Amino acid sequence: HLRDRALARLRDRLVDGVLTVTASERRSQLRNREEAANRMAALLRSAIAPPPKPRRPTAPSRAAIERRLTDKKAQSQRKQQRRRPAADW
Predict the structure, then answer these.
(1) Distances (CA, A) of 4 to 7, 8, 11, 47, 69
(2) pLDDT tens for residues 57-76?
(3) Torsion, CA 55, CA 57, CA 62, CA 67, rounded to 10
């Protein structure tokens, strides 16, 4: 079950069924190997993690809707005040 999930999630990174991880930030080969092992462990941990719970859609609250509309009106007023006054002829 976990193996199937990991294989499915890592299929883009697999080359002939082998997961390859590289690290070359450090000058020491030993440190790079340790870094690569840490990356491999992190990759596998994230690959076998359970899928996230589906998002439950929610509607905005009445207060949030009113707040958005008042902000919208205020922005509209601000922009109207920036306009040049209409010529009266």
Answers:
(1) 5, 6, 10, 10, 49
(2) 999 999 999 999 999 999 99
(3) 60
Residue 2 has phi, psi (to 5 degrees) of -70, -40
CA-based nearest residue to 35, from 23, 17, 21: 23
Bridging pattern class, strands 18-19 and 14-15: antiparallel
Name the pTM for this structure: 0.58
- pLDDT tens profile 13-32: 999 989 999 999 999 999 99
Using DSSP's 3-state secondary structure scheme, residue 74 falls into helix
Grade residue 43 by pLDDT with cuts at 50, 70 and 90: very high
Taking Cα atoms as reference points, which of 45, 44, 38 lies closest to residue 22?
Answer: 38
